[in-house]
Amino acid sequence: MAPAPSHCHATNGNNGAIAAADTPVKTQHCARLLDADEFRRQGRLVVDLIADYYAGMGEYPVHPTVSPGFLRHRLPAEPPSRREPDAFAAAMQDVRDVILPGLTHWQSPRHFAHFPASSSTAGALGEALAAGINVVPFTWAASPAATELEMVVVDWLGKALHLPERLLFAGGGGGTILGTTCEAILCALVAARDRKLAAIGEGRIGDLVVYCSDQTHFAFCKAARIAGIRREHCREIPTYRDDAFALSPAALRAAMRRDADAGLVPLFVCATVGTTQTTAVDPVGELCAAAAPHGAWVHVDAAYAGSALVCPELRGAVAGGVEAVDSFSMNAHKWLLANNDCCVMWVRTPSALVAALGTDQEYILKDAAAETAAAADGGAAVVDYKDWGITLTRRFRALKLWLVLRCYGVEGLREHVRSHVGMAAAFEGMVRADARFEVVTPRRFALVCFRLRSPNKKKTANELNRRLLEEVNAASSGPYMSSANVGGVYMLRCAVGSTLTEERHVREAWRVVQDRATSILAKMDIIMSSVNNISLQEKAFPRRGNGFSSEADAGSTCTKAEASYAS
């Protein structure tokens, strides 16, 4: 929505005129809300707090030990009725004392649980700069420089990632900066839907079918439901460990053929470069070939691993496959230092996006003079980014991304990504060097999926590794990791990606994993020895009545005792 009038203006309830006598306008109070001197003073408090936070990051456990409701019980139930004395400084103290201790610290160098939410000085200050300027660039006319800077930086980034020219403005395509991959997938889906329905008739929306793998992020099926695709028409094609959990082109081709033979309409394929659970990479080029006979739209979700394409040696994951895609998205806020939020999406045919998402009725947003000038200037297109996404109000995200690219350059981004890939490779090497562990899936980028081998056939490795993860994450000042369960295999995930992570943090994390594994295995040995002794005694001296009546009963009791190691 367009910005509402300032609350500082008093109006007459009858005709909306400014109340000159009845209600005095407190212009002096309004002026203080953006007083330059106050802004400098309070701004320093914020900058100092953030700098102190980063400097003291190691003092916080990565994940807090709090219970639901902990913060609501510490804060008043009602908002302040009037301004408190030195309210801003008091609020900053509450941030330090109350809020920060209750956060999961995503910027911690010991945060290995999720793909990164990367930060940098340029990214954070670019975010602050955009918030301070606070423009609303829904059309070119609403903020010409904001629109054109966005067009420039999406082409810059596309070139840095070595994307096909046909996806860039320079090659007839184009890009936009959104908040998240969820938005990007939904926008692409709606564009594909409307393009297909224009050809076959809107009445056939119930026949549309979309395709992904069982490793595709849940955001895809959620977006499909929002776009009007029936739940039963979202095909999640199974993947297998032998294929590194990648989507099989043969399986996709067969599924699309079955649907077409049944009178349904294949619409959309979501290929992933770097799945959330294991960073599997779908064979994009082959999937495009499978989709082509049906005229299906192919979108690449490279939310995490798209950043890795800045490195030539990592582009092999999608080599030769992206040229035929219809759209491509990645999150620069995940690994390219752009701070949340910053998802970039490129499309081969921007007109399809505009046809589905464009709005023509808001004449107040149009600028006839700009369009006339553009036509006189050789027909240069005027981009109104409100027609490229879901929202009307949008943020000046391009400023942040532009600052990151200017301050660090493409080489700086490559060094950043390579450092994490190198640390992940080192962690992988430590895992492989310990015979008690195994690397479950091939490491492609900076995620290592591993697990502890079960020394006891009666105790599944899945249960053993659940316990291991609990103990690793419970360690004081230890790492914070996560898990995946793929193909029935439970594994631990160590994702290296925090800007503050150094090699020592990776080594320390591995030591904690080893120590906890040693403790768990030692406890298992003690309990198994006790179980075996009990079993031998019961076999030698069977009891009746309230005791053991059979060897089977003794075995059952042994199994229960064996399971107690986890308690």
From TrEMBL:
GO terms for cellular component: cytoplasm. InterPro entries: Aromatic_deC, PyrdxlP-dep_de-COase, PyrdxlP-dep_Trfase, PyrdxlP-dep_Trfase_major, PyrdxlP-dep_Trfase_small. One of its GO terms (molecular function) is pyridoxal phosphate binding. Keywords: Decarboxylase, Lyase, Pyridoxal phosphate. The keyword Zinc-finger does not apply. GO terms for biological process: amino acid metabolic process; carboxylic acid metabolic process. Pfam families: Pyridoxal_deC. Belongs to the group II decarboxylase family. It comes from the Eukaryota. This is Tyrosine decarboxylase. The modification N6-(pyridoxal phosphate)lysine is found at residue 334. Its cofactor is pyridoxal 5'-phosphate.
